[in-house]
Design a protein that fits this description.
The chain is built from four helices and four strands; from the N terminus they run ααββααββ. The protein has helices at residues 3-11, 22-30, 54-59, 64-72; strands spanning 43-44, 48-50, 75-77, 84-87. The relative contact order is 0.26.
């Protein structure tokens, strides 16, 4: 999979059909690819958390299916930092 495809996936509308613990499920999915210390929350704001950069997940073997799962869990690529992020 390419970075362009990941960006395309995360631009799609996920709708509002995700579980209440979507942030935690997303972090668990990210941890399939990276050690826990790398797959954690990197920062937070009032109602959003930031995690890893998608490029890092691609190098670690992120599949298209898991990228789509993250998007369905309302994860996104934050505009300013470029990191994966999720509203909580």
């Amino acid at each position: 999979m390419t970075l362009e495809r990941v960006l395309e996936i995360f631009k799609e509308d996920s709708g509002w059909n995700f579980p209440r613990n979507n942030a935690m499920i997303g972090l668990q999915l990210i941890s399939k690819y990276l050690p826990l210390e790398e797959a954690s929350i990197r920062g937070a704001d009032h109602d959003i958390i930031y995690s890893v950069f998608p490029e890092k997940l691609l190098v670690a073997g992120l599949t298209e299916e898991d990228a789509m799962k993250l998007r369905e869990l309302n994860w996104m690529i934050e505009d300013e930092s470029g990191a994966l992020a999720c509203y909580v």
